[in-house]
Task: inverse folding
């Protein structure tokens, strides 16, 4: 996965890539909060919102992967527990209106190993 894809609203995102983006976002927010606790500079605490805004495309792409429209991302930020279904629900195994499945295709006629 290309790191630039984390900031794109187009296409679909697998669960493992979404989990990585979520982990990075949570780690950055914890680091920002720790920095703010040490310095109490308001600009540091406001940078949390930039990190959260950078996470929006990942949520929208994951929603598109399970077949929902990206505007459901509003529900994710109103109720953060809505992130859990995004980690649990599987991808649609076939192409949908947002693009092909992000999982690699496995051919049906694989030769058997001896």
Result:
């Amino acid at each position: 996965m290309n790191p630039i894809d984390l900031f794109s609203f187009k296409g679909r995102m697998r669960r493992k890539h979404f989990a990585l983006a979520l982990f990075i976002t949570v780690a950055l927010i914890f680091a920002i909060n720790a920095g703010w606790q040490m310095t109490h500079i308001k600009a540091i605490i406001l940078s949390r919102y930039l990190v959260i805004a950078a996470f929006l495309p990942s949520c929208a792409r994951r929603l598109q992967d399970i077949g929902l429209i990206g505007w459901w991302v509003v529900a994710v930020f109103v109720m953060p527990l809505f992130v859990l279904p995004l980690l649990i629900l599987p991808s649609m195994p076939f192409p949908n209106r947002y693009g092909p499945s992000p999982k690699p295709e496995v051919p049906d006629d694989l030769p058997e190993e001896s």
